Amino acid sequence: MEFQSILFADTPMELDRSIPAFFQDLHLDYILDIIKHHTTGDYQTDHYYYTFPGSLQLVNYRQQVFKDLMDGVLRQAVEDFCSGMRQSRHSYMLSLECDEPVRAAVYHLEAALSYWEALEKFGDCLDSFKPVSSGISLLKEYVLNHIAECNENGFSGAAAGAKEIFSQMCFYMDLNNEGVTINVKDNTETREERDYLAELAGLLQVDGNGTDNQTVLKNIFPNAL
Question: Which residues lie below 8 Å from residue 123, measured CB to CB, with a gap of 6+?
Fold first, then answer.
């Protein structure tokens, strides 16, 4: 069985989008609001509570997953991973809303770095954890394989290198009677002029021959290409 879902295993199930009639009768809607406030935050999880497991096997699958989650280290790792994903999604949405290309690229880079940092930390925890449930076991295999693929295709190295170049970028302000001009070049002869875009292209080998690296660059800076 391949990893499909931590909730539904490999069982195809359609989520119920409407609240069951008895929820309000039993005040379950009130309890659900408390759960959401203290745990899920901005995640839209209502329909998962509306949808009941379709078999006893699926109930057992979930119970075994929860037994693994009783481990405090794993549970904290899951919470940290979710927090990292929220930060990544927030930065990504800012990149879509930003009209300035360079700023949008920076937001997109922040999203990629938040995603990678959260994924690596989660993978480190899973690597040292010995799960009992098939759900966490399959999730562990899936996450570790995904991290290995990201390392192999250059994503992690490209993101780290781009972060280093962005952190070294300098802008200069020229003050004169005509106003203020912001340049990426230093007009004095005491500083070395740097072409940051060329450095990024060189880092990712975007020269017509590095197709794979160019794909990575587009994934990190889609609004700047």
Answer: 143, 144, 147
d(CA 116, CA 42): 21
Q: Give the sign of the dihedral formed by CA 41, CA 47, CA 52, CA 58.
A: negative
DSSP lists the bridge partners of residue 181 as 174
- 175: its two tokens: 């003050």
Q: Please check whether residue 30 is in contact with residue 60, taking contact to mean a CB–CB distance below 8 angstroms.
A: no
- The reply to whether the predicted model has a pTM over 0.85 is no
Q: Hey, which residues does 182 pair with through a beta bridge?
A: 173
Half-sphere exposure (Cβ direction) of 141: Cα atoms closer than 13 Å: 12
Closest to 13 in 3D by CA, of 66, 52, 62: 52
CA 27 to chain centroid, in Å, comes to 35
* pLDDT tens, position by position, 62-85: 999 999 999 999 999 999 999 999
- Residue 48's CB is within 10 A of a number of other CB atoms, namely 13
Handedness of CA 29, 39, 95, 204 (dihedral sign): negative
| Euclidean distance between CA atoms 19 and 40, whole angstroms | 18
User: What is the distance between the alpha carbons of residues 214 and 95, in angstroms, rounded to a whole number?
Assistant: 19
185 DSSP 8-state letter: S
Contacts of 205 (CB under 8 A, 6+ apart): 213, 214
